[in-house]
Amino acid sequence: MKKFSIVVAGGGSTFTPGIVLMLLDNLDRFPIRQIKFYDNNPERQKQIADACEIIIKEKAPDITFVSTTDPETAFTDVDFVMAHIRVGLYAMREKDEKIPLKYGVVGQETCGPGGIAYGMRSIGGVLEILDYMEQYSPDAWMLNYSNPAAIVAEATRKLRPNSKIINICDMPVGIEELMAKAIGLSSRKEMVVRYYGLNHFGWWTDIRDTKGNDLMPKIKEHVAQYGYALKTDLEGAQHVDESWAHTFAKAREVYAVDPDTLPNTYLKYYFYPQDEVAHSNPEYTRANEVMAGREKHVFGECNRIAQLGASTGSTLEIDEHASYIVDLARAIAYNTHERMLLIVPNNGAIVNFDPTAMVEVPCIVGSKGPEPLTQGEIPRFQKGLMEQQVAVEKLVVEAWAEGSYQKLWQALTLSRIVPNARVAKELLDDLIEANKEFWPELR
Ligand code: NAD
Ligand code: G6P
Ligand code: MN
């Protein structure tokens, strides 16, 4: 049986050890001969790599492990690029969150001004990796979950239309796990869903068990009362911090706006921006929480393992929920025709919506990539929201490609959570200053 060679781009990511453990746990479904790490920050990557090398030696000594900052070494002889980079690291995420809050505007990694700022940094980084892949392993596929996925996906559609890249988000996976638990199923894989939207901006319209029985009424009953919050914690889940608990509970109020559908949690930033600002601490945002929590834990554990030379007593956990990445790689490698939510060019999947928009819809995935499933016509409410949001995302990509100050100002002005054009301009000027090192020059 063929064994695969993969490169993890953003080897220094806090998610890398969890993903490596997950890959090692799935070798019977997805055999691997080589794992490479690539990052442009050697010090950060080394800490993760030293520990992962030990773990791989212990669990699967046949796998070749390579950690490098050299693109040719990293991208030569690979079948899949699994990309999760964060251009500007948490230091810049912190600014994305704190600068808007100074203006009383939502400060969030992927939504509103913070997401726009992050998008302007990410586009170049993701394109660079895609270009390396095409140069050194032209038959490979890039599975990208670098954020902000909506903007990154639009950039790759527009600027690299023929590239083999698939953009994917784990939020629907995470929410579906909560839904399944809420109604007493053992796994989200017992559900078949219909869903449409943009990334971090979508709705479930139909959820059935594998026999075709409608599960929506039971799930809605739960969401109307608790949102996506559960009475008991989900074991080994990614979204466990207090701020996530708040997000899952808030879904109750997001759901109330349209009880015909079930919403993605990120819609809270667009429907209740004032609530989000009111309960944010402008001195201590999610970036601070992650630096003090996940980053500290992962790097602390990796350094400990490296020093010990063994993973004995490790508290690093398998990122079980990230097995959707293996499902995706397998779908391409073995033509499994797995049904998955992916971010793809609309092309009529949402009938009454811009065919050139990057939308998140269920797709059948085989060796030629995703085939989107039509979701029919969408109602006026969602269509109106999505048209505004997709225009923001397209304007950001145009602003990046053309170096246009005006278009980025328009993008910020159009964002639902920015109150007016004056605040948009003040914010833009602050963000330009903070992102000098990363953004193209705007004229
Ligand atoms: P992190 O900062 O810990 O890791 C990112 C790594 O990328 C760093 O080591 C950094 O040096 C590296 N990097 C930055 N620019 C690079 C470039 N141009 N080339 C190579 N490497 C580069 O961040 P994290 O919190 O672990 O998150 C990583 C990414 O995954 C983020 O974009 C995050 O938003 C995303 N993410 C996405 C999903 C999803 O559902 N799509 C889920 C979780 C995380
Ligand atoms: C969800 C989203 C990701 C996002 C992550 C942030 O999983 O789908 O796109 O990166 O949340 O989590 P964090 O713990 O970094 O705030
Ligand atoms: Mn996401």
From TrEMBL:
Organism: Granulicatella seriolae
Record keyword Signal present: no
This protein's UniProt keywords: Glycosidase, Hydrolase, Manganese, Membrane, Metal-binding, NAD, Transmembrane, Transmembrane helix
UniProt superkingdom: Bacteria
Cofactor: record remark: Binds 1 NAD(+) per subunit.
Family designation: Belongs to the glycosyl hydrolase 4 family.
CDD domains: GH4_GlvA_pagL_like
Transmembrane segments: 6-24
Cofactor: NAD(+)
Domain Glycosyl hydrolase family 4 C-terminal: 195-418
Entry-linked InterPro entries: GlycHydrolase_4_CS (IPR019802), Glyco_hydro_4 (IPR001088), Glyco_hydro_4_C (IPR022616), Lactate_DH/Glyco_Ohase_4_C (IPR015955), NAD(P)-bd_dom_sf (IPR036291)
Pfam families listed in its UniProt record: Glyco_hydro_4, Glyco_hydro_4C
Protein name per Swiss-Prot or TrEMBL: 6-phospho-alpha-glucosidase
